[in-house]
Structures are given as structure tokens and as C-alpha cells.
UniProtKB/TrEMBL annotation, chain A:
Residue ranges occupied by any Reductase C-terminal domain in the UniProt entry: 335-406
Keywords, comma-separated and alphabetical: FAD, Flavoprotein, Oxidoreductase
Named cofactor requirement(s): FAD
Entry protein name: NAD(P)/FAD-dependent oxidoreductase
InterPro entries named among the record's database cross-references: FAD-oxidoreductase/Apoptosis, FAD/NAD-bd_sf, FAD/NAD-binding_dom, FAD/NAD-linked_Rdtase_dimer_sf, Reductase_C
Top-rank lineage group of the source organism: Bacteria
UniProt source species: Methylorubrum zatmanii
Pfam families given in the database record: Pyr_redox_2, Reductase_C
UniProt keyword annotation of Oxidoreductase present: yes
From TrEMBL, chain B:
Cofactor(s) the record lists: heme
Organism: Methylorubrum zatmanii
Keywords assigned by UniProt, alphabetized: Heme, Iron, Metal-binding, Monooxygenase, Oxidoreductase
Similarity comment text for this entry: Belongs to the cytochrome P450 family.
Entry protein name: Cytochrome P450
CDD domains, alphabetized: CYP164-like
Lineage of the organism: Bacteria, Pseudomonadati, Pseudomonadota, Alphaproteobacteria, Hyphomicrobiales
PANTHER family assigned to the protein according to its UniProt record, in alphabetical order: CYTOCHROME P450 YJIB-RELATED, P450, PUTATIVE (EUROFUNG)-RELATED
Length: 420, 412
């Protein structure tokens, strides 16, 4: 791996792929650079899709800016279908082969399809992942459906519900769990957001699932819930999570499964036996990497910030020559969401958290910074409409400060530690 | 100055013209304890972090010391203690923490509307043109007295609604009150006594002005604040007005003077600004990094704060050395080079966190109008003293005079 690469292929032409391409050029890579994208579009930004694009404020063309001197070749509209890490080439959907000296796998995720194929095929059933999805759904929303039924208690579901309310469309939001957004934010904050959603007119149903759908002439007309209630609707959005785009790696020997493509601390792809695959790296939603902030537990992080940071790290390491010159990916996961007039930010990961405390503001004011602890250490912090102290908590999470962190500070209510 | 700490050397007027080598020394230890127990933060990462840390308080003014007895029991036992107590409770929001800070700053921000600030561009241009017109026929000017001082003063007075005929008396008041930012001055008895006299005078003046504004509101910030039904009490209103006046008097003057000084030291940038005035905004951002008007701000640690391998102990004074962080090579490549084309120039020239400069948009407009006009109209400029003499402050750092030779003043 000491020879400098002449030809780099990036499988995946979204945020991570483009960030890596820029990172490679910034670091002086002058060879051939090819990005493969299965969509026909140049790299674009996703955060506005569930918000401004659906609402009709922005067009669905959220193309990301490219450096004028990027000089990358884009192979768009064709997925990568096979990797041969011994012969070092990627095969595309049309059978053509792209040889590489270094390969970055940034194929990301796709929306999890509705589990019953005959229902998934109905006109009126939508998922939201790409800009074409956003365009289709946006057009439908702007034509004012009678009622939108949203399935899924995650951020996309809530953001779409918020957009629907902005457009004054009646919304029923079905959440399978007893608390919305609980996986990321815990019961207190998830509960707060659920409360705000209800105030804004969302018909929020917790612990609720669809039993079956009704259709006429291939068009969705109604859904029946498990509790027997029937809701008429001609527009259903399934926001039920994602699937990682790893199937094309079958047979390559790489350690890829539904949880993602395993890589080491330097973003190098691994085989099933844990050995490093020469010249192959991974970044973004598809990568599953050892998180130094959580005792190297493997994690795949589907956040905008991680995609960029990991692509940067991978780009540097692809040109580093050997491991001694590589940098480990130590990005502290963070993300934000805007919905129902609230800005929600989260730093760190709340998985396995066993303690929760509001450190600034309050749930009642709906402006707060809250912290999450796990086994006595600070692992995450969330803010709602009040991000100004978040950097200090971010530092505390990086340092794995004892929980609760940052006491005797300004602007703090009395400490009360609860279950998350 | 052997044996003195690095920060004492920074305070020493002998090092005012070029404190940057001392800053480089300080940065070797990102957060360094001085002999007197003060902690100086000089690196970008640590400073950016601490400036948004809820354990760092801005309420760090020393309590007024006991004053000399006047012999009048009513004055000594009643008037002064009560007045001191009132002042302590109604400090300007630059020296206050949330939630009070947020309320007061919020009220000011509501008056500092983007439309109002943008509207100042034309007025700034008019004042600039007037000041430059007065230079016609001269071959020597003092940029500070003839331009950099009067411009922002006229602008802030107009914005606040201070009658132009009263401007003159603010000069002395503002200079005196600005000592509150200098930790080596503000604690001493004589300065405190002078500040008290000075504050009482300015407070009386502003009290009168507020009455006038309430009776007869005008299109200005003081009228807005004074007639805000959900507004601040009069003590806070006075403290706020004084803050805005002092800030308007003591900061932009440095930005403009440092700007011309830097352009004259690097004439290729002067020529470029003359030829491409549209590059001014980037140049001003680089100035804010390279020669910021405010070099440091002081804070107080409310709790033990672990940072950069040490712990700042509870109750320790903390100096956030913004100007040193602006030259941190870990954040800015080739930091001692003046380079307006620098990418991603996230300087700390306006501070950061919740006390980020309220007047930043106004200062940017003033500096842009001033520098573009000066280089366009003043021909054959040169420095007659390099370095120029500096004002005493180490925080509000800038030349007290910038004497220039010039050949010609071009028509406007």
C-alpha cells in the first residue's frame, strides 16, 4: 500500500462520496477519480427534502456545490453490482468494470420498503429517501390529500408530519412504540415532542400499527389499525427506517450485513475474519465502525455530520500509505432536526443510557439542554431550542465526564436525575 | 520586566505595539496559570470551547471598594452604599449572566434591527465623506483624531439618538468607563472613584435624555428602549445606554485605525482594495482576525473546569485572549500572514458565545465604508511613525494617533 494511488473509485455519489472526493483533491490526489451513483442525479443534500422541498419552498434540486476543479468523473444512473477485491474492480449494472487502486464504499442506505409487497405497490403509498421521492410526495401534498397517514415514530415521520401541518393537511401519525422518538431521545424528550405535535394538530397514535390496507383500482383508500379502527386516506407515508445498501458486496468476502459494512478505526473495510481488505475503505451510513466514545462498540451512524467527517478521514487515510500515517475516525455523532417550530440537537448516542437530567431550561418551557448518562459517564446531550451551552456538554461527552457533568454552572435548575 | 508573568508583560504598555510574540509564548500552554491565580486561555480550540461554557461567568466586575470618607455621614453611610448597591444590580449586560443578560440583550437586539443597521450605511457614507472633505489641502493628518474616532462616535450617537451637540462630552466619559475592561486598572481605588464620578455624570445626562425621549419619541434606539412597555427599568436602561455608547466609542475606532495601519504596512492590499472595493468584506474579516479591536475579555470560573489537561479552579479569574486564539497555527495556517483570501476564517474578533458583539453588523458596515473611501480618496498616503503610539489599554488595543502623510485628497 505504499505506492501512491493512480485511480480511485468512490461507490456512492451522495454526501459522503462527494466529501471524500473533495477531501482527496484537497490532499493533492491528482489521479483519476470516479464516483458511481445509482440515481441519475449529481450529489445532492437530503436534510431539506423532508422539510422545505416537501413544503414546496425549495425545488427538489438540492444539488451540493462541487469545487470547480474537482475533475471527477460521475457514473450516474447505474448501481455498483459487484466487488472483486482480489482483482480490484467494481462491476456496474451494465456489466462494465471499473478498476481501482483505492475504493471508497459509501453506498449508504435506502428507505425500508413497506413489508407487504402487494400493499407497497399501491398508488398513494410513499417512502422518502431521495429527491425523486421528495418530489413525488411533495406534489401529492401540495395537491392537498384529504388526510395523510404516516407510519413510523422516528425523525423522518415527525418531520413529514410537521410539514403536513404547515400545509394544513390533516395527519395521523402511527407510532409502534409507546413513546415517539424514544430510541434517540428517550421518553421525556420524545414525549415532549409528541405533545407539541398533538398541539399542532397531529392525530398521534402511540402503540399503534396497521392491520391492513384497502384499495380501489390500485389506489389506496383506507387503512385499518390493529385495534380495528378504520381511517380513510389516499396518502400513506411509510417512514419505517432504512436498509443498508450492502447486497452488491455479496460474494466479495467483505464483512457486510444488514447492520452495515464493518470497518476498522481507520475506515478500512474488513473481511469476515477481521482482516483488512487492501485498498478498500468505507464511510457514511453504510459503514459500521468502532466508536471510541463507546468503548469501541460497533456503530453505524446515519447522520449528515458523520458522513462528512468520516469521508474526510477516509480520504486522508486512502492517501496515507500505511496505517502509521492514518488517522482514526473519532467523530462524536451529532445531528439536528427541525419540526413543529422546534430545533432539536443531539450530541453523542443515547443507546443504553440509564440516567437523564435536564441541565438548562425545563421541559415545561420547551427550551432545554438535557444530558444522558450510562454507567456513571456522560454519553449524550440533547437541546431543544437552546443550543448555546451544547459545546460544553460535547466536550464533557468527549472526555467521558462523570454523570451528571457540569455542575454549579449558570442558568441551571436544581438537578434531578431520572430514568431516560 | 524580568520575573513578571507573560500576562503582566502583555499589560505592560511597552509591549502594546506588538504583543503577538508574547501571545505565541502563551499559546505553548493553551490554558496557563499566572502567578496571581489568573488563567489565560490563548488557543482557538480551548477558547472557542470555554466561551460557550456555562461554568464561565461574565459577572466578574470587582465589588466597589470602600471609598475615602468624605466626612458627610449621609453621603458616606447612605448615599454611596445605596448607589453602589444599585449599580451592582444594574450592571450593563456585558457583565451579566443569563437569565438577566438574555432579557436585556434581547431588548437591545429588537431595536438593532437589520433594516435599521443597513440604513446606517448611507449615513456612514455621508459622515465619512464629510470627514474626508475636511482633509482637503492637508499634507499631514492624524487618522484617529480626524477620522477613526469621530466616525463611529457620530454613528452611534445618531443611532441611539444622542443630539450631535452633546457628543463632545462623551469622549472623556467613554475613555474613563472603558477601563472596566482592563483588569489591571478597574480594581484600583482611584480608577473606581473616577469611574463612579464619571458614571454619575453620564447617568444624569442619560436620565435627562430618557425623559425627553419618553415625552417626544424619535426614530432612534433610545426612544425605542425608553418607550418599550415591556421594557427594562431605568437603572438597566441607563446601564445599557452607557454600554452602547462606550462600545460605540472605543472599539470601531481601533478597527478602522488598525485597518489603515495594516493596509499601509502591506501596500499590495491597499492597492487591491482600491482596485477591487468589492473585496472589502473579506479584508475586514481578516482584519478582525489579524488586528482585532478587542484583544481579550475577562471571565470568572463558577466551578472547577477541566480543560486542556488542567483544571481551572472555582472562583479563578479567566482571561479569554481572543487576539492570541486568532493567531493560533492549529486553527489558521500561516497565522501571522495578513491574507484576506484565507478560507474558513472563523476568527474571534467579535468574541463568541452569548456575548458575541451586538454591534458586529454595524462595525462591518462602518469599517467597509471607511476603508473603501479612505483608500479611494486619499492619494500618496504613508506612515510617518511605525509603530504608532498606542492607547494604554491592552484589551481595547489600538493606536491613540496614526499620523499619516498624504499628497492629495481626491474628489468624492
Amino acid at each position: 500500500m505504499t505506492t501512491s494511488p493512480e485511480r480511485i473509485v468512490i461507490a456512492g455519489a451522495s454526501l459522503a462520496g462527494l466529501a471524500a472526493a473533495h477531501g482527496l483533491r484537497e490532499r493533492g490526489f491528482a489521479g483519476r477519480l470516479t464516483l458511481i451513483g445509482d440515481e441519475p442525479h449529481l450529489p445532492y443534500d437530503r436534510p431539506p427534502l423532508s422539510k422545505q422541498v416537501l413544503r414546496g419552498l425549495y425545488s427538489a434540486d438540492t444539488t451540493l456545490p462541487r469545487h470547480p476543479d474537482l475533475e471527477a468523473e460521475f457514473r450516474l444512473g447505474l448501481p455498483a453490482t459487484r466487488l472483486d477485491p482480489e482483482e480490484r474492480f467494481v462491476e456496474l449494472g451494465d456489466g462494465s468494470r471499473l478498476p481501482y487502486d483505492r475504493l471508497l464504499i459509501a453506498t449508504g442506505t435506502r428507505a425500508r420498503p413497506w413489508p407487504k409487497p402487494e400493499e407497497a405497490a399501491l398508488d398513494g403509498l410513499y417512502t422518502l429517501r431521495g429527491r425523486d421521492d421528495a418530489q413525488r410526495l411533495g406534489q401529492r401534498l401540495q395537491a392537498k390529500p384529504r388526510r395523510v397517514v404516516l407510519v413510523g415514530g422516528g425523525f423522518i415521520g415527525f418531520e413529514v408530519a410537521s410539514t403536513c401541518r404547515d400545509l394544513d393537511i390533516p395527519v395521523t401519525l402511527l407510532v409502534r412504540d409507546a413513546t415517539p422518538l424514544a430510541a434517540a431521545l428517550g421518553a421525556h424528550l420524545g414525549g415532549l415532542i409528541g405533545e407539541v405535535a398533538r398541539e399542532k394538530g397531529v392525530d398521534l397514535r402511540l402503540a399503534s400499527e396497521i392491520e391492513r390496507m384497502e384499495a380501489e383500482g390500485g389506489r389506496l383508500t383506507a387503512v385499518t389499525l390493529k385495534d380495528g379502527e378504520r381511517i380513510e386516506t389516499d396518502c400513506l407515508v411509510a417512514a419505517i427506517g432504512t436498509l443498508r445498501n450492502v447486497e452488491w458486496l455479496d460474494g466479495s468476502g467483505l464483512a457486510a450485513d444488514a447492520k452495515g459494512l464493518r470497518c476498522d478505526a481507520f475506515c478500512r473495510a474488513l473481511r469476515r475474519d477481521g482482516s483488512v481488505v487492501r485498498g478498500v475503505f468505507a464511510a457514511g451510513d453504510v459503514a459500521r465502525w468502532p466508536n471510541p466514545h463507546d468503548d469501541d462498540a460497533l456503530v453505524a451512524v446515519e447522520h449528515w455530520g458523520n458522513a462528512r467527517a468520516q469521508a474526510e478521514t477516509a480520504a486522508g487515510n486512502m492517501l496515507a500509505g500505511d496505517a502509521s500515517a492514518m488517522r482514526r475516525h473519532d467523530h462524536l455523532p451529532d445531528f439536528w432536526s427541525q419540526q413543529f417550530g422546534l430545533t432539536i440537537k443531539l450530541v453523542g448516542l443515547t443507546d443504553g443510557a440509564d440516567a437523564f437530567a435536564v441541565r438548562h431550561g425545563s421541559l415545561e418551557e420547551r427550551r432545554l439542554v438535557a444530558v444522558f448518562g450510562k454507567e456513571g459517564r456522560t454519553v449524550a446531550a440533547a437541546s431543544i431550542d437552546s443550543a448555546r451551552w451544547l459545546p460544553a456538554y460535547k466536550a464533557a461527552i468527549r472526555e467521558r465526564a462523570p454523570f451528571p457533568p457540569i455542575e454549579e454552572a449558570l442558568d441551571q435548575p436544581r438537578l434531578r436525575v431520572q430514568e431516560p | 520586566m524580568t520575573g513578571s508573568t507573560l500576562f503582566e508583560q502583555i499589560l505592560d504598555p511597552a509591549n502594546r505595539a506588538n504583543p503577538y510574540p508574547l501571545y505565541a509564548e502563551l499559546r505553548k500552554i493553551p490554558v496557563s496559570r499566572q502567578e496571581d491565580g489568573t488563567y489565560v486561555v490563548s488557543t482557538h480550540a480551548e477558547l472557542a470551547r470555554l466561551i460557550s461554557d456555562p461554568r464561565i461567568s461574565s459577572d466578574d466586575l470587582p465589588d466597589p471598594q470602600k471609598f475615602r470618607w468624605t466626612g458627610h455621614p449621609i453621603t458616606d453611610l447612605l448615599v454611596r452604599p445605596v448607589r453602589a448597591e444599585i449599580r451592582k444590580r444594574h450592571r450593563p449586560f456585558i457583565f451579566r449572566d443569563p437569565p438577566d443578560h438574555d432579557r436585556l440583550r434581547g431588548q437591545v437586539m429588537r431595536c438593532f434591527t437589520p433594516q435599521r443597521v443597513r440604513g446606517m450605511r448611507e449615513k456612514t457614507q455621508r459622515i465619512t465623506d464629510d470627514l474626508i472633505a475636511k482633509m482637503a489641502g492637508k499634507t499631514r493628518i492624524d487618522l484617529v483624531d480626524d477620522f477613526s474616532y469621530p466616525l463611529p462616535v457620530t454613528v452611534i450617537c445618531e443611532l441611539l439618538g444622542v443630539p450631535p451637540e452633546d457628543e463632545a462630552q462623551f469622549h472623556g466619559w467613554a475613555t474613563q468607563l472603558a477601563t472596566a475592561l482592563e483588569p489591571n486598572q478597574r480594581g484600583d481605588e482611584e480608577t473606581q472613584a473616577k469611574n463612579e464620578v464619571c458614571f454619575n455624570e453620564i447617568a444624569d445626562y442619560i436620565q435627562g435624555l430618557i425623559k425627553e425621549k419618553r415625552k417626544n419619541p424619535q426614530e432612534d434606539i433610545l426612544s425605542d428602549l425608553a418607550t418599550d412597555t415591556d421594557g427594562m427599568n431605568d437603572f438597566d436602561l441607563i446601564a445599557t445606554a452607557v454600554l452602547l455608547l462606550v462600545a460605540g466609542h472605543e472599539t470601531t475606532v481601533n478597527l478602522i485605525t488598525n485597518g489603515m495601519l495594516t493596509l499601509l504596512r502591506f501596500p499590495e492590499h491597499l492597492e487591491r482594495l482600491r482596485a477591487e472595493p468589492e473585496t472589502a468584506p473579506r479584508l475586514i474579516e481578516e482584519l478582525l482576525r489579524y488586528e482585532p479591536p478587542v484583544h481579550y475579555r475577562t471571565r470568572l470560573a463558577l466551578a472547577d473546569i477541566p480543560v486542556a489537561g488542567i483544571t481551572i479552579p472555582k472562583d479563578a479569574p479567566v482571561i479569554l485572549l481572543l487576539a492570541a486564539a486568532n493567531r493560533d497555527p492549529l486553527r489558521f495556517s500561516d497565522p501571522d500572514r495578513f491574507d484576506p483570501d484565507r478560507p474558513d476564517n472563523r476568527h474571534l474578533g467579535f468574541g463568541g458565545g452569548l456575548h458575541y458583539c451586538v454591534g458586529a453588523p454595524l462595525a462591518r458596515i462602518e469599517a467597509e465604508v471607511a476603508l473603501v473611501s479612505l483608500v479611494r480618496r486619499l492619494k500618496g498616503l504613508s506612515l510617518t511613525e511605525n509603530p504608532p503610539p498606542y492607547r494604554p489599554g491592552a484589551s481595547l488595543r489600538g493606536p491613540c494617533h496614526l499620523r499619516l502623510a498624504l499628497e492629495e485628497v481626491a474628489e468624492g
